[in-house]
Every structure is written in structure tokens, then in C-alpha cells.
Amino acid sequence: MSIKAEEISALIKQQLQGYKNELDVEETGIVTYVGDGIARAHGLENALAGELLDFGHGVYGMVQNLETNDVGIMVLGDDTGIREGDTVKRTGRIMEVPVGDGMIGRVVNAIGEPIDGKGEIKADGHAAVEHKAPGVMERQSVFQPLQTGIKAIDSLIPIGRGQRELIIGDRKTGKTSIAMDTIINQKGQNMICIYVAIGQKDSTVRTAVSTLEKYGAMDYTTVINAGPSEPASLLYLAPYAGATMGEYFMHKGKHVLIIYDDLSKQADAYREISLILRRPPGREAYPGDIFYTHSRLLERAAKLSDKLGGGSMTAMPIVQTQAGDVSAYIPTNVISITDGQIFLDADSFYSGVRPAVDAGTSVSRVGGDAQIKAMKKVAGTLRLDLASYHELESFAQFGSDLDAATQAKLNRGARTVEVLKQPLHSPLPVEKQVIILYTLDHGYLDKVAIDDIARYQQELFDFFDASHKDLLDTISKTGDLPDTDKLNAAMDEFGKSFQPSKKDDSQQSTATK
């Protein structure tokens, strides 16, 4: 039986149609060292800086060092399953995290995986953790206020949307509390919040999440947790992951507040990684690019131009000091990158002045641009009043014979300190801040005993809510003070109804001093 050429040709064509190219070319390397969250691999000649590598068994790494003979890799997770001689593959993808509306209200780890037990996250996509900050022409000046709800900050150290404001102070002086109150105050302010916990105890993070849930703040907040038991690589990556998640919303024209708590621990984690990777140590054993580590992160905070949608990302990094030493290496680095700092004083904190904001050291380089007109008017002399009070206070304790002008300054200063005190998790809307500062500025508190000021303030707010809601609405809607005659008449009306506490003469004179 003869086979025709046409049949052979048709058979070959049929075979070719069903052919699938199953040849898969992968660039691989051999692990030459593993330990302390770091691996080295020989090969991978075409690996990119920041590229994701696959060790198998669900363990990934990120390229850090590109050297002549091998590649230095940060292991993202548990490295106990990796052995010398194992194969590691390139993925061709730069390190990225999930982004989108599905992240809001969730608690995730440094690579965006959920750790809150609420199931899988439906992300809108993925974005690289390293991203170039917006250029000068892509930005505009910061002009919209970001209200923290804290009188001492909104009046003295105002923060604008798109600013970078550092919170700095010793351990246990209320840094995280200020961050939490600021997040709570964003309810109804069209703001998405991201809280990045770096090296914080898991119990502390759980408390923070439950506080946010209690006040309804988790509805617009994402929490990223890189705990102290996790590898240093995740503590280093967590802030960049947070910035990436925030940028997604910023480029959609939305407003974002991101808190890094705290960058001292990120610097320590990066130092650990760098020393194990054998990068040359510099001052205090930190690598030479420790400044760049923080600057390229914080520069991503911006107020975008109207052409790009006008979105903003406001960064509030936290840095811990030792015994109030703001001249240490990491604090000075971060101070020079940010647009101001809120310095918390340990002595004030332990003496009962909370929040313990040091008005003399704290500064906002945006200043009045991030304040409404009404706040500018009532807070204009506040810093000077506090400065002169603290200066006179040290002299006054050595002598009792003070002239009337000095006594008046001391009285005003003591009342200013009392007014700026605020209970935990009790942020105030800006219109109520303006009202109480107006009473201080115009002398309505001068004859009120210091022990009565907290009660005076609360009763004043209740009075305005009940009888003069229109004046509060005027401040919130226009941003300016209402008619002065109406405001003064309301203050006088309340002053007549306020009942001071009954004390004997000795207690009254002590309180006044």
C-alpha cells in the first residue's frame, strides 16, 4: 500500500497545529548562604534591584545587593526552610503590594496579606513598593488644613494636607496617642488614613485597632503591622508598602493621612539588614544611605497639582528620642526631611500637661497657610503668651513681690496651659477650638479659677450647642469668626450663668496663682 505525499503533508500540518511549546526557560541561582533573614545566591546575573525572587515553598525574597559574584537577598518571611544549595528563581516582578478600596478597614502585614481573620482582600491591583516621588511641577503649595482635633497642635503647629510633620519625643510621652486622636478626628473629613506600626508590640497594635473600631475610625483606615517578632526585612518594607497604598488614593484625587510609628525602629531594622549584607557601616553603625532610606519615603507625601487631580498624602512620621536628645543621628535626619516637628516634653507629660506639646521647640514650616481665618485670629498671640509665661514662671518662684503686669502675664499663661490640656481620644471640631481660644484671648477666663477651667470649657460648648449653634456653624462653614457683637453677647450671657466652684479663700487664692 503506497502512502501519498499529500497525506504525509496533511498529517505533519495536523501535528504542528496541536503542538504546544512546553519549553520554559527560567533564570535561576544557587543559594550560597542563608541566615538572620538574609540569603546570598550565585548566578541570577540579570536580577534587578528590588526584584522579587522565589525560593519555593511560598517563601519569597527581595534583591538588595547586586555584587560581582553573587546577589544579596532579603528573605520576606521565615528563612528556616531555605538551605545552602537550594535553587532560587527570578520572577521578573519588582516587589509590589496590593492596593485599592478593598484595603480600607483591614489589618495587613508588610506585604499586604490580611492578618485580621476577615478573609481574602479583593484588591484593585498591585503597585511597586518603591515609587519616584512627585516632582516640583507636579505639586502645589499646601493650603488646606488637616485638623487633628488637638487644640495645642491646630492652634500652634498647624498641619496642612500634603505636609510632612514629625512627632518626636521620648518613650511613653503620648506620641501614638496624638496619631490615634488625629485619625479619629478625620471622621467625616473625606480622609483615608493608613497607620503603619513598625516594631510595635502586638498587644499595642491590637489596642490601637480596637480604639479605632470603638470610635468608628476603621471605616476609613488601613493598619499595616510589622511586629518585633517578624524579620527585619518586613519592618524595613512596611513604611514603603503603606506609602504605596496611600499613593493609589492620592493619584485618584483623594486625601490620605499616613502615620509611620515609628521610623527609629525602621532605621534599626535597616541597619541590621545592611550589616548582615556587609555594607560598610558609618556613624553609629548605620549604613551611608540611611538618610536616603527616610527621604525617599517621606518625599512621596505631597499635595498634587489640580492638573493631576489635587489629591494629597500627609505624612506624620514618629521618631523616638533618648532623654529628649533631638540632636541624635536619626532624629536630626528626619527633622531635616520633614516640614516641621511636634516635640513632646517628658517633664510636661509627667507633670500632668497632656498632650505634652513643647511650644518652644515645636514648629510647622507651613504655619498659617494651613489654618482657617478664625483660628489665625484667636491663636495669634498664643505662642508668645506661653513663651513669656514659661520664662516668668522660673523667676516668679524666687520672689512674691510681682508687679501687676507680671502677675497678669502669669495668670494668662497658667490659663493658657490649662486650656490647651485635652483628655485622651477627645478631639475637638475646629469651631469649638476657636470658641474656647476666643474666650482666652479676650480675657473671659482671667477671672475663672484654674481648677474650674475644664468644667467652664465643657459647659461653654454645651451652651453653644444648645443656644448658639448658628455661631458654631458660621465658623465651620465660612472659616471666619462670626459677628463680634453676637459672639461677645453670647460669651457674656454664658458668663452670667456659670457658677464657680465653692472654695474657701485660701484655696481660691492658690488656684488663681
Task: Provide structural commentary.
A hairpin with an 8-residue loop joins strand 14 and strand 15 (312-320). The radius of gyration is 29 Å and the shape is elongated. It folds into 3 domains: 28-94, Elongation Factor Tu (Ef-tu), domain 3 (Beta Barrel); 98-370, 3-Layer(aba) Sandwich (Rossmann fold); 377-512, ATP synthase alpha/beta chain, C-terminal domain (Lysin, Up-down Bundle), CATH 1.20.150.20. The protein has helices spanning 5-17, 151-156, 175-184, 202-214, 232-250, 263-276, 290-298, 329-337, 346-350, 373-379, 382-396, 404-420, 430-441, 453-467, 469-478, 484-497, 505-512, and strands at 28-35, 38-43, 51-56, 59-66, 70-76, 87-94, 96-99, 107-108, 125-128, 166-169, 191-198, 221-226, 255-261, 302-303, 312-320, 340-344, 363-364. With 513 residues, it is of the alpha/beta class. The model is unreliable at 504-513 (pLDDT under 50). The protein starts with a helix and ends with a helix. Helix 7 (290-298) packs parallel to helix 8 (329-337).
For the record, what is the CATH homologous superfamily label of the largest domain?
A: P-loop containing nucleotide triphosphate hydrolases
Q: What is the helix tally?
A: 17
Q: The CATH topology of the largest domain, please?
A: Rossmann fold
Number of strands: 17
Q: Rg from C-alpha positions?
A: 29 Å
Task: Report the mean per-residue pLDDT as an integer.
Answer: 91
Distance between the termini: 123 Å
Stretches with pLDDT under 50, minimum 5 residues: 504-513
Q: How do you describe this structure in short?
A:
With 513 residues, this protein is α/β, with parallel strands linked by helices. The protein has helices at residues 5-17, 151-156, 175-184, 202-214, 232-250, 263-276, 290-298, 329-337, 346-350, 373-379, 382-396, 404-420, 430-441, 453-467, 469-478, 484-497, 505-512; strands at residues 28-35, 38-43, 51-56, 59-66, 70-76, 87-94, 96-99, 107-108, 125-128, 166-169, 191-198, 221-226, 255-261, 302-303, 312-320, 340-344, 363-364. Strands 8, 10, 11, 12, 13, 14, 15, 16 and 17 form a 9-stranded mixed sheet that branches.
